[in-house]
Amino acid sequence: MATQGTYRRHRIVVLALDGLLPFELGIPQRIFGKARDTDGQPLYDIVTCSIRPPGPVETDADFAVLIANGPEALATADTVVVPASYELGPVHDEGVLTPELAAALAHIRPGTRLVSICTGGYVLAAAGYLDGRPATTHWMHAEHFQQLFPKIQVDADVLFIDDGDILTSAGVAAGIDLCLHLVRRDHGAAVANDVARRTVVPPHRDGGQAQYIQRPVPEAQAATTTAARAWALGRLHEPIQLRDMAEQESMSVRTFTRRFREEVGISPGHWLTQQRVERARHLLESSDLSIDQVARDAGFGTAQSMRQHLQAALGVTPTTYRRTFRSVGGFSPPPPLPVPSLGAAPLKGARGTAQSFGPAPTHPQPTHN
């Protein structure tokens, strides 16, 4: 069995900026800090730095935090995480870095993985890292973000976007979703699920930001679609019709579809595809079933259909995914997932490819609702 001494732990450096949100600053420590191998050893080193020499950094609360590392710590990072700040100044207002921030970011080595939480994406954008790439941020800032940085492909509907070496998340708690996704990408579902259990959060949230946007006149709701979702999860391997799900809630198809979108943020078809992809991932990681069997049990019908859906959602084939995340004979740190090619779709958290309600079709639908 591999021991901690046989490999170097992945180092995550969190950049603390004035006006930071203490909750978001703590997310990387909480999520990555709880990730352990089968021997109980930590899988990540996490350090926090500021853009100035060690000292206090102001928060948006009535206290400051004492940061023990200066910007030179960024040069040691395998992954840099930039949480949100309410005092970004010209970064937020004009889309340009301050000299002090630019000098700090210059420490980052080429090839370092970059992650932003909420409006931390403004920092990556102002530095030019997001030009020509898909990205997201808090839905309240998405329109301004797009206007300020027109070269970025802003998607305000998702919880996070994984574009290989650069990942961005929506507001606040979406940072938890993104960090859990990175743990899963680095070390597999078992480790990520364990972290989620310890943190008392779901390992994967359904839907996107749309479900959290305040509507001018919200419609009063007595019924929900919870029972229909639970019913569908118990029979993902079977053809599932929209009318069957609607019947579980004694609703018309039209009412059910509208209510489902309001509660989950995506269509029932998109949601089913997400659940089937998650089911396939679990089986590929944890079972000896053949690819054909996994496809049938996950509800894709054929291996070809599953291959196309996983390729669209994850950027890899089922065989590659299994080889990457399957650990035989104890813990063995897997290689990172391949960075999507220029023509590949980035992975969007809590969004999926469209799908009919029966076994998944051979050709996946576009990713947008």
Give an account of the 3D structure:
- The protein has a seven-stranded mixed beta sheet. The chain has a two-stranded antiparallel sheet with strand order 3-4.
- It starts with 9 loop residues before the first strand and ends in a 20-residue tail after the last strand.
- Strand 3 (55-58) and strand 4 form a beta hairpin.
- It has 14 helices and eleven strands.
- It has 369 residues and is of the alpha/beta class.
- Helices cover 37% and strands 11% of the residues.
- Helix 1 packs parallel to helix 6 and helix 11 (268-286) runs antiparallel to helix 12.
In short:
The chain is of the alpha/beta class and 369 residues long. Helices cover 37% and strands 11% of the residues.
Sum up the structure in keywords.
369 residues; alpha/beta; seven-stranded mixed sheet; 11% strand; disordered N terminus; disordered C terminus
